[in-house]
Backbone:
């Protein structure tokens, strides 16, 4: 009994000593309450800082070259247009613009003295000078279409256009007026940045520190004729040409001696701004053409009663294919719809630029209308001039897609021609 009454001892393990190098974990203590940290309010930018930020973003936007593909289409289109026009009039060039022109040289000089227009054909008399200017204008159109030295060739192209068109201002149609205006705007664009021989040369020389010796040589060759013209036939236009020549020389000097200087960046930014302004002016000019044409049509009684197209189709001057003209003019409902649709589209076109999808649809319809005018009324160059001018509104995605398709076709053609040539070589071997 005494043994049963003995207290049972409970063994409690003694705490182990910590291992060397390891500290014993302290029991968790109650978290100490800290006062909440008050976040300091972010100071808002002042009005001046916001204005400076918006201005800097606008300057950065303006210093980038926009719409290079549209400018390339305009360059190719106008070069093709003017070259084809001069080649078509090659048999009649002497009567229209040369020594056999009824609008004689003294009469042309008197008119130019009143209007202050520019043409080099009045500087000298004789067939040799006229042939030199006419062939030079054709060569400038071809080189501009190919995109070879576009900065200098664009100026020479403008000189050729003004020389031919201002020699006989009463010859031609509205297409001549359009190209006369657009040739001046084209000088200030970077129309050779893509789809040109200049772009191909820059791509081949990427990463190389080679100097543009051919461009400098062309710049130096143009100096003596410009100097001779300044002494013999001074005009306000020649002052503009001197400014262009000096700026181009400054560009070459910056590329040669200060390629990374701030002046070089300033010239690049100024060129981009000029390009953007010129493209904007071209777009505004096209809108003015359509709006003024639509408003003038809306005031005419023949357009109001829907019979203007009918009478235009029955003029002998605009009947290249009489059977086709009779086929369209026989349907009076179609003629009525064409009259009103033309007026409505021309007046509303500037307002559709704010809506991209509507603008694209209307632009496609107007291009088809110009093609119809060229086919039915026989005015191909006026229609081509308007189609090329409309290219400034073409979406960039469409032009890039067209570039990809054309590159794919060229690549497949090269592959096929290479396999064909290789097969011939194997057979001959």
Residues:
């Amino acid at each position: 009994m005494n043994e049963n009454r003995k207290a049972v001892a409970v063994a409690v393990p003694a705490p182990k000593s910590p291992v060397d190098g390891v500290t014993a974990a302290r029991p968790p203590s109650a978290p100490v309450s800290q006062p909440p940290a008050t976040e300091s309010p972010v100071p808002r930018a002042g009005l001046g800082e916001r204005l400076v930020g918006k201005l800097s973003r606008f300057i950065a936007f303006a210093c980038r070259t926009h719409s290079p593909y549209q400018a390339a289409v305009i360059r190719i289109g106008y070069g093709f247009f003017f070259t084809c026009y001069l080649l078509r009039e090659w048999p009649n060039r002497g009567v229209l613009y040369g020594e056999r022109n009824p609008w004689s040289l003294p009469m042309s000089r008197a008119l130019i003295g009143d209007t202050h227009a520019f043409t080099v054909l009045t500087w000298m008399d004789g067939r040799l000078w006229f042939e030199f200017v006419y062939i030079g204008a054709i060569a400038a159109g071809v080189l501009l279409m190919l995109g070879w030295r576009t900065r200098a060739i664009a100026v020479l192209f403008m000189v050729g256009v003004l020389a031919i068109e201002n020699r006989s201002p009463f010859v031609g149609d509205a297409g001549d007026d359009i190209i006369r205006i657009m040739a001046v705007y084209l000088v200030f664009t970077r129309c050779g940045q893509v789809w040109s021989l200049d772009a191909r040369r820059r791509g081949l020389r990427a990463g190389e520190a080679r100097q543009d010796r051919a461009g400098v040589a062309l710049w130096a060759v143009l100096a003596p004729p410009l100097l001779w013209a300044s002494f013999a036939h001074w005009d306000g236009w020649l002052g503009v040409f001197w400014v262009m020549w000096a700026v181009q020389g400054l560009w070459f000097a910056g590329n040669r001696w200060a390629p990374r200087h701030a002046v070089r960046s300033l010239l690049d930014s100024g060129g981009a701004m000029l390009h953007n302004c010129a493209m904007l002016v071209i777009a505004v000019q096209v809108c003015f053409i359509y709006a003024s044409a639509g408003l003038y049509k809306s005031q005419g009684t023949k357009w109001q009663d829907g019979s203007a197209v009918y009478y235009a189709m029955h003029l002998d001057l605009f009947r290249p294919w009489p059977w086709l003209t009779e086929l369209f003019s026989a349907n009076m409902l179609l003629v009525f719809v064409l009259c009103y649709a033309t007026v409505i589209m021309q007046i509303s076109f500037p307002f559709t630029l704010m809506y991209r999808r509507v603008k694209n649809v209307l632009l496609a319809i107007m291009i088809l209308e110009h093609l119809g005018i060229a086919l039915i009324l026989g005015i191909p160059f006026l229609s081509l001039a308007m189609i090329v001018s409309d290219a400034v509104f073409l979406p960039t995605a469409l032009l890039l897609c067209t570039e990809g398709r054309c590159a794919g076709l060229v690549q497949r053609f090269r592959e096929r021609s290479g396999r064909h040539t290789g097969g011939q070589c194997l057979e001959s071997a």
